[in-house]
Write a structure and sequence with these properties.
The structure is a homotetramer. Chain A has 12 helices and 13 strands. Chain A is α/β, with parallel strands linked by helices. Chain A folds into 2 domains: about 160 residues, Rossmann fold; about 160 residues, 2-Layer Sandwich (Dihydrodipicolinate Reductase, domain 2), CATH 3.30.360.10. Chain A is globular and about 60 Å long. In chain A, about 60% of the residues are buried. At the C-D interface, strand 7, strand 8, strand 9, strand 10 and strand 12 of C face strand 7, strand 8, strand 9, strand 10 and strand 12 of D.
Chain lengths: ~350, ~350, ~350, ~350
């Protein structure tokens, strides 16, 4: 296997750390450059002590031309707005981009402005970006120059609902997604809400009715179903490091048994290496530290309940990014991920 | 204040431990007897090391006459079925009973048999027992001889929904209660599901569609609303010691603003010492180790979301039991609870 | 009981929150003023959501004269240096001070400068301050105008070692104190080290050989033993909210049995309402949310091991502060603490 | 790479689960058989839901001949005593054994009887077994037929102390090892001590002076130093899944700087792929889910403090077992471990 050189832009967060960790296992990839907005150009293993002794790489200030001279593909693990500032120059320098931020996920700049509260500064590229969820858009990924890597709540919700919406087995409106996430989903910047003695031994909902993954879920699921999907999305913060659990309530369009619904989901995902449609209710721990998405469903008093889980940092971020990379490079999609 | 002697039957679990802890602060109560099914008649502070040095009391085998000679009121912190075996003899010996189990909560023995899988052996008393939720049944509690102390998920759900159902502001059917509980709610008996390395760093739903608090919630809320209430109740296990958070989705019956709904809830609970209707979303930690029930609500895309929390061991079990005790004794309802 | 008015200066941290919580249970005290360095003069229950509905008090900028007009006693829950800036004016205005910071704990300003890295700006008062550990200095506390409330690691270590040092049963030098603390001990200011996904599921030593509680432990234990005590003190951060556990290794001065050593400790603390010398090894959870100090000891291969635990926020901070307050006011020492 | 078939005997615990997980990544190994003492011959992914979809293997009752027909090497992840009952028949059937229990770690059957409380039933093989710590016994491992895989506390302690003892830089007696472990170290059998609401949010020492890893540590370190080593070993239970941290206090034999000591350790471990001698104090999280052993040291008031960490389930159990397997098969020692 020849070696592809990649860069990680925004090297200090958890998404970046997981990328480093996964790519160190990848036989066909070398992380040749890393950048961070921190002044002192830290070594990667100073930023991430768990990587001590694993790689000899120092962060540099972000420089698109320098990256282009060292890498074919750049992972952007930046906050939103920082990604749309960095992406154009990378693309213009011939670097393909896998963007882990939300900046290129929404197609409509008006929707972006509405939910993110500011104008999108690279709106023309919103149409060009490929939404990097291989289970739904696998064919578009290999040639893509700009991948919008999905959000973590988003992937959980979309993968859980896609089979039933694609088969028109549930109503596309009024879907309730009650989602629970570990704290790493909030990023690595210290803030009182994520200070250990505040969120440990506590659970609460947040961002009720206004979490930014809502329009992303709706956009993709509308694609899948061919009809306008509307969801109520309620995230909760859970005192654990990683993992998302989604409990989803939908209205069936017709009478169908639990067994049939499960069989339909199994058929829908039959060829997927990272989707496990299971009988038993998954726990987040079952998929923690893996690229698996786990789901099952139940019929309760006339509603379909879909119960789904994944690791927010892997299948919800860095893992699916590597899955996208593998597809872009024509490699086995599971490389470095099993 | 004169001293009332009480007994704790079933002294080894978390409900009992919290009762001991609260009653040690109670100026008008003395725990004069404790019983446990364990053979060796352990001291209470052997069962509960946190009570070391706090009380000099040894458990005895359960003996209704002996309890009657020592105590006016018995708290039953027993598993279901054990309570209905112990209660008749206590009542016949003149001991008033506050039963923390589920045995006397449901009025209809057929519903009990349906959800608990066996016949109720003391069915005639189901009609006599008073449901011990002071916010709804305060007037019936002082003279009661048998209190059915509410379940933890139940109290959270009922208190969250009572104002809106009482005022007919939401539809009584199709209510979704997505509830999350700390692990102490599962009791103190070791089991693989609650073994630390299994449930730590993990979250999952369980008992989907068949949790036994469902009929209890429906019975009381049907009372409150005067119509038949039907809920979908989904419990989840959360890696924390204590606390329940309920995220509830209901259909408004008419157009009403969030502010008005909050005002209606505040009015409904205006005189309640342990209900806090708040603007901000409560975290379980806000009410942990207290007898408070916290709630707020939001309107999202045409649905009412009620967000509620309490401490499952206190307001959800031992605290409300002491609140009931205070009412039964004619004391200030908040004694030992603030 | 008449009501004494007190102030809490530095209302936003965990020490202050615990003070509010304890004092709300105190029948003889009213918190009449609170100050915070935050600009917006927040309400206390905005700073501490768990106190919602419990008190109607707004923070004000620190003003010694205003405090003096409202309160007899001020608790200072400030970072070190801030306390020594605030204390002189309070005392001059006739307010007695219970300082929870480290500023007045060390008697020798040179030692302070050495460990804290700057000059003490109120050095003359170092001699006047009374070290507020009632088990050792109970008689000096009632008349004190300035109480230096002990550190949390410090109290654990001192109470664990005092009986053996006082009775000259262990060598005063070469004592190893391996201490483990919950994260609330690090305060409420967000920092990467205490960001949930960093310190959760992790344990490490920190401040090895240079933690500032070292000279405080040595000063007080030298007092107790009449000889110069030297310790090696190693703190560790543990993924839990609260609790300190100290594992202490000392060299016996002569042959004595474990039973005799325990008996000597029990005698030493016989009259203490908050010290529990136990047979079994205490867990931090046994004393969590209480003002108890738990200890036991073992003889292992010629060393004495003392195993001790307390709640860092209560017996290690706010609880002992209230204990000191009770002594200063001539009240039962356990008021609001059991 | 050709494929070696292996068996896992005792498939239900955490050590076994980690073996499955690691071996699924191993290009040269296939798990061809698994056994469990459970009656119902469960599938491996029923025992370990995280392995859903990963392997199609059902446990069978233990049968040495059947294992010999399917596998060349057997990992024994059994409780002690069960291993010494199973090992002889496996060896006699020509199966090489990597035993993760304590049964073959101690050379002297009298020491075994003393610490484990019963007679060793396969004492003659104690001399034959190779202690499977590659950093110390690498040359003996390739030809071994019976590997005694080290204990988790043991490896942490031994690797931390070996360089200093080998170089005679510390006194071999009076070494204090204060060790802290995550709860998975206690195994997967539910017990009150490991019930989530008991050990969560709590820390305590246990087994003080009588933990069975003590003689194992002493035996190997006596080997290393050529003198009789004596330690005081104090384990603590920490509310986290995995990780061991050891804080070790030793007396230097002569004056030497911290930098020199670190340099000596780095030289000692220069060729080791899984030892990281670091400047900064390691956290258990740095090596969690890896096969790395991390250490550093400090000089404090005349004592050497060694601070060391590893993942108890990987470098402390299943990871080192795979490392041993790689050596036994003549493969790159890091296969499946990076």
């Amino acid at each position: 296997m020849s070696t592809t050189k990649v860069a990680i832009v925004g090297a200090s967060g958890y998404g970046a750390r997981e990328l480093f960790r996964l790519l160190l296992k990848h036989p066909g990839v070398q992380v040749a450059a890393a950048s961070s907005r921190q002044d002192e150009s830290p070594r990667v293993d100073e930023l991430h002590p768990s990587l001590a002794g694993r790689l000899d790489l120092r962060c540099e200030p972000f420089d698109p031309a320098a990256i282009a001279s060292k890498a074919e593909i750049a992972f952007l693990a930046l906050p939103h707005t920082a990604s749309m500032a960095a992406t154009p120059a990378l693309l213009e320098n011939g670097v393909r981009v896998i963007d882990l931020s939300a900046d290129y996920r929404l197609r409509d700049p008006a929707v972006y402005a509405d939910w993110y509260g500011h104008v999108h500064t690279d709106a023309p590229r919103l149409g060009e970006a490929v939404y990097g969820l291989p289970e739904l858009y696998r064919k578009r990924i290999p040639p893509a120059r700009l991948i919008a890597n999905p959000g973590c709540y988003t992937s959980t919700s979309i993968l859980a609902l896609a089979p039933l919406l694609a088969e028109k087995l549930i109503e596309p409106r009024g879907i309730i997604i009650d989602a629970k996430s570990g704290v790493s989903g909030a990023g690595r910047s210290p803030r009182l809400d994520y200070h250990f003695p505040e969120c440990n031994e506590s659970l609460a909902a947040y961002g009720v009715g206004r979490h930014r993954h809502t329009p992303e879920i709706e956009q993709i699921l509308s694609d899948v179903s061919g009809r306008e999907v509307e969801v109520i999305f309620t995230p909760h913060l859970v005192p654990m490091d990683r993992g998302i659990f989604a409990t989803i309530y939908a209205q069936p369009t017709r009478s169908v048994s639990e067994a049939d619904l499960l069989a339909i989901c199994r058929t829908y995902y039959a060829a997927e290496p990272f989707v496990r449609v299971r009988d038993r209710i998954p726990a987040t721990k079952d998929s923690a530290f893996t690229n698996f998405f786990d789901m099952t469903l139940r019929l309760v008093r006339g509603k379909v309940l879909v119960l789904a889980a994944l690791d927010n940092l892997i299948k919800g971020a860095a893992g699916v990014a590597v899955q996208n990379l593998n597809l872009m490079l024509g490699l086995d999609e599971t490389t470095a991920l099993l």
